[in-house]
Write a structure and sequence with these properties.
The chain folds into 2 domains: 1-48; 55-271, Orthogonal Bundle (MetI-like fold). It is 84% helix and 0% strand. It is built from 11 helices and no strands. The longest helix is centred in the first third of the chain and has 39 residues, at 9-47. The radius of gyration is 24 Å and the shape is flat.
């Protein structure tokens, strides 16, 4: 009888456990970040560190609150360049990966130029892009695309080749055309690898946009950091770094959510 009286509470306990389990991935990093900021604040105040050397988190928050529009506009410009470059790189990488995945000869011919593009220093190319395309959005998009192209290409090629041989043989036994095999087998099989490439490329696209703004003098988060550094305004500089970190985390989390929705059928979605 006592056991029966406890049974109605079991569903409520299960719901609480599920809610706690689902909230843990969000709460844990927030608590860790809050602890880090608290230690930072306490250390700066205890050691009386000068603000131009290392501002306290409270000073950074004041700088963010004083000019939110300035940060929002700079973030918008950098995000526009980063997403534009990521989209351009993803499209170009997918098209090139289709040819490389179906031909070893094309892979041997195209892989060295793609690798050369990867190892080319951005600081050497960015001034040329500025000379060729001006000081607008185009050079920033191209630099962001340049830094994200190679990870997307490699992951997409591997994904297009990572097909289940039994599924491939089954489709061929049904007289499926190469086009049908491509869309019904190769593309779905490549999606986990494509999303893995996106997880790598999203932060890189922001880095590319900021570096382009450093070198081209265009408005954005890079230019905001450059101006704050020249003025020894470290609270504004750290505020820009905080905004960039929040942008990168948000974009990466968005990719993870989309990946979970698209790849609900794949084993990798259970670990996201």
């Amino acid at each position: 009888m006592a056991r029966e009286r406890l049974d109605p509470a079991v569903p409520g306990q299960t719901l609480r456990r599920r809610a706690l389990r689902s909230a843990l991935p969000v709460v844990a990093p927030l608590l860790a970040s809050a602890l880090l900021l608290a230690v930072w604040e306490a250390w700066v105040r205890a050691r009386d560190v000068k603000e131009y050397l290392l501002p306290a988190p409270s000073a950074v928050l004041v700088a963010l609150a004083e000019e939110p529009g300035r940060y929002a506009e700079a973030a918008r410009l950098s995000l526009q360049a980063a997403l534009g470059g990521l989209a351009l790189a993803s499209l170009g990488a997918f098209i090139l990966a289709v040819f490389m995945a179906h031909s070893r000869v094309l892979e041997r011919a195209l892989y060295p130029p793609a690798l050369a593009l990867k190892v080319t220093p951005i600081v050497a190319v960015a001034p040329l892009f500025t000379i060729w395309f001006g000081f607008g959005l185009a050079p920033k998009i191209l630099i962001a695309a340049m830094i994200t192209f190679f990870p997307m290409l490699v992951n997409t090629v591997i994904g297009l080749r990572s097909v289940d041989p039994r599924a491939h043989d089954f489709l061929r036994a049904l007289n499926a055309s190469r086009w049908q095999v491509f869309w019904r087998l190769r593309v779905p099989s490549s999606l986990p690898y494509v999303f893995a490439g996106l997880r790598i490329s999203v932060p890189l696209s922001l880095i590319g946009a900021v570096v382009a703004e450093f070198l081209s003098g265009s408005a954005g988060m890079g230019q905001l950091i450059l101006i704050a550094n020249g003025d020894f305004d470290t609270p504004v500089l750290f505020g820009a770094v905080f905004v960039l970190a929040a942008m990168g985390i948000t974009l990466t989390a968005t990719v993870a959510v989309v990946e979970r929705r698209v790849l609900f059928w794949h084993d990798s979605s259970s670990g996201i």
